[in-house]
Amino acid sequence: MSLPSPAEPAGAARRTGLAVYYGPPTPAALRALAGHERVAVQAGLYSPGELQALRRTAQVLGYLSVGEDHPLGEWPCVPGSAPYHLQVNPAWGSVAVDVRHPQWRQVLLERAAQALAHTDGLLLDTLDSADPTGTLALIRTLRAHWPHATLTGNRGFALLPELAPLLDGVLFEAFSTTHAPAPALHPPDGMAYTAHWLREVRRHGLPVDALDYADTPELAAAAHARATAYGLSTFVTDRTLSRPADPHAPTPTHPVLTSGGPPCTDHT
């Protein structure tokens, strides 16, 4: 693979990556996650004790979907059952929401409080799924309620520059590869797009972690090589984020998060 010129000087400092895992807290998964310094998980699937143990060795972020609803743990999601539901997202089986609706605001604050009771911060997903002004208002509310929590946003490029001072970092999902319709490198225009937005995010002073998808060692190696060229750490995983470790990472791993939760089944 021919790599473009790095977006950062060769000597730019790199930080440990963010490990993102959406699966259940099996003993094997907990052992793997404990080997990372920073992790993002579906906190509602874990017991308080499991999260407390994980926080002894890692900074733990709880997943929070801002612009879409989905079922997770005790949170049900039947499309059309809530006044803030809009259309179903067929890629993930989740439901886009009206972020301006006061009931969604209340639901989001409750979910954030549940996650932050046992984590160090939040991974804010689906920032590109709803009204930009309403989405920014929700993130401002989260920041006001929890000024010391670590807030990392997944993409959200259309919300810049207003988004930048509200976050502690950005997760760049699909930096070099995509999962749809199958894991593959971006075409040249896609590579140019991600390089452009990496420069923009860094211009606003935000630390960046990458997340990529691969189903072969060769594709994973290509994703890691491009991330390294740009001074990034990337976590390479499968579409369902069911790997608590990146088996192809060239250095000690710290993964990253993607969007969506379990499918939102329509029971109507």
Reconstruct the topology from this structure.
Layout: E1 19-21, H1 27-33, E2 38-41, H2 48-54, E3 59-65, E4 68-69, E5 85-89, E6 94-97, H3 102-116, E7 121-125, H4 132-145, E8 150-154, E9 169-173, E10 177-178, E11 184-185, H5 188-203, E12 208-213, H6 217-229, E13 234-237
Parallel strand pairs: 1-2, 2-3, 3-7, 7-8, 8-9, 9-12, 12-13
Antiparallel strand pairs: 4-6, 5-6, 10-11
Task: Give a quick set of tags describing it.
disordered N terminus, 268 residues, eight-stranded parallel beta sheet, disordered C terminus, single chain, 6 helices, alpha/beta
Structure commentary:
The protein is an alpha/beta fold. Helices cover 27% and strands 20% of the residues. The chain is built from six helices and 13 strands. The chain has helices at residues 27-33, 48-54, 102-116, 132-145, 188-203, 217-229, and strands at residues 19-21, 38-41, 59-65, 68-69, 85-89, 94-97, 121-125, 150-154, 169-173, 177-178, 184-185, 208-213, 234-237. The strands form three sheets. It has an eight-stranded parallel β-sheet with strand order 1-2-3-7-8-9-12-13, covered by helices on one side. A three-stranded antiparallel β-sheet has the order 4-6-5, with no helix packed on it. Strands 10-11 form a two-stranded antiparallel sheet. Strand 2 (38-41), helix 2 (48-54) and strand 3 form a beta-alpha-beta unit. The longest helix is centred in the last third of the chain and has 16 residues, at 188-203.
